[in-house]
Amino acid sequence: MSSTASQALVSVDWLKDNLKNPGLKIIEVDVDPKQYGAGHIPGAIGLDWAEDLQDPVRRDVPCKQQLESLLGSRGVSERDTIILYGDSSNWFAAYAFWVLKYYGHQDVHLLNGGRAKWLADDSLPFTNDVPTYAATTYRAQEPDESLRARVIEVLDVSRTLSAGGQRRFNLVDVRSPDEFSGKVIAPPGMNETAQRAGHIPGATSIPWGTAVNTDGTFKSPEELRSIYFEAKGLSPAADSVAYCRIGERSSHTWFVLKYLLGVKNVKNYDGSWTEYGNLIGVPIAKTV
Amino acid sequence: MKTDHTTRVYDSILDALPNESNPSPLVRLQRLSPSPTFPLWAKLEWLNPFGSVKDRAAAELIADLERQGKLGADQPNRGIVEPTSGNTGLSLAAIAAVKGYSMRAIVPQKVPDEKKALLRLAGAEVDVVTDALCPLPGTEDGSIGLARSYSRAQPDRYAMPNQYENPANVRAHERTTGPEIWKQTGGKVTHVFTSLGTAGTVTGLARFLKAQNPNIKIITVQPTEGHDVPGLRNLSQIGVSKLYDPALIDEILEIPYELAYQRAAELFRREGLRAGPSSGLIFEGARRVAEREQVGFGVMIFCDDVFKYMSTMVKHLPELATDEGGAS
Lengths: 288, 328
Description:
The complex is a heterodimer. Chain A is of the alpha/beta class. In chain A, strand 4, helix 4 (87-102) and strand 5 (108-111) form a beta-alpha-beta unit. In chain A, 31% of the residues lie in helices and 13% in strands. The N and C termini of chain A lie far apart (50 Å). In chain A, helix 4 crosses helix 9 (249-260). Chain A is globular. Chain A has helices at residues 12-18, 34-38, 64-73, 87-102, 114-119, 151-162, 177-181, 221-231, 249-260, 272-276, and strands spanning 9-10, 24-30, 45-48, 81-85, 108-111, 169-173, 204-205, 239-243, 266-269. By secondary structure, chain B is α/β, with parallel strands linked by helices. Chain B is globular. Chain B starts with 25 loop residues before the first strand and ends in a 12-residue tail after the last helix. Chain B has 2 domains: 13-52 and 167-318, Rossmann fold, CATH 3.40.50.1100; 54-159, Rossmann fold (3-Layer(aba) Sandwich). In chain B, helix 1 crosses helix 5 (167-184), helix 5 (167-184) packs across helix 6 (200-212) and helix 7 (258-271) packs across helix 8. In chain B, the strands form 2 sheets. In chain B, strands 1-2-10-7-8-9 form a 6-stranded mixed beta sheet. The longest helix of chain B has 18 residues, at 167-184. Chain B has 9 helices and 10 strands.
């Protein structure tokens, strides 16, 4: 891998030049799975976030064996360099990134700008041929719990923040302003919802899209620092937790905090509002 | 028999498409104009053969692809893919059907069911894309991105007219809508009221009319943010179109979107004009300007009638769905 690709992001130009690298696997994960079917980067494997990247029965990420079986069946090995990309500025690609890191995949990157950036350049190849790769055996690591916040921990963080411990933790709510304020429980038309509206006390509202430009690329580290640390007041050194409604949008902000802003300890609370907003007796903050 | 506009005999439905010699009707409001010295005239685009103002752009977009050799005999397997909130798709699908091209329409979820069914009825394959869950900064995703994906991945099967970027959309109105208004009003027009969607209509007709008389005021009417008036854009959403030219627009009026539905109902009840909600909004803008300026000659582009929007109308005017409902 070149020095640029050794970082968390790769550019469209880098991928264009390295499309045929042996040991490189490109994986597309979309909010709208129709997008992959209509066309994708040549050689890209398509994963469905709802069917492939969730446990089919209980509410959870896939277990270790499920992930091994999924990636092995698609011909991905734990030694591969994985480039993830998707629609909506890599929103669900970032969720896949978080799941892969949770299971210890070393060499995984996001394509900066995602699907839209690639699609916007007519000179880049695009196809609807679905590739087939010989099945492999994928060996995942044990889950890295330092990347995942559970509700007990979130309650502790919230209590500390509510008691004035602003410098010790960052708790970031990445949902839309109306969800944060409690005006709506979820965006219109969503099946997964909660009994109550509002946010976790002590949380800072920074909608996930704050981190991206109109062409789908991430803002520069300088811009991000100015927004997240200066304007929004997060502490660069504090342990951080990001949450949203079901844990996908927050993966995007988890990526921004950990890899683009260099915050050391960042966890994704994938239980998010659909867990918290359904709990009996926990404190809820509302601003409407 | 040959096509003859004077007897309204048409050899093909495509001959009934509007142009200077076969213009869409221009009808004066009899009761709802606020000033006797500022008559308001409605251009009834729903009387175009496929039912809306979009017939004009669709015909020009397809003709443009044919001229470039991207559609036609040399490309026997190639059809059309286009992102559309309904009317462009319907016009494209109908014209494509007459000409023997296939059509795939990429439609946002929020488009009324009537329109999705109509597209299928006209022979289009319809892909419904999920609406954004929360505001997206980009514009390439969703329906435009999906349509682009088809045309990029399978260029042998799909040509994309791209109403949001293709100058043929503007040219359609420069060649037909503008000249029709000039001829129908005998050059008396002082104000044109229209809405913003792709901005093709306003840019095209403004270019033609301002070349005839630079004093003609071009006024666009837009719904307030958060609106659900199908086919329209608030200026904050116009970034999606590359055809928008602010230099041609004299005034932008922002009207509370609920009025679109009330005014549409008044237009039907008091003028016999079966106007859809976007026409209701345009009328409200025209009414305000006529009241303010008192003297003028206004032309309103009434894009579509109400039939495809009944579910949205009922949502905003619930009395339409009750047995007790009636004129209010």
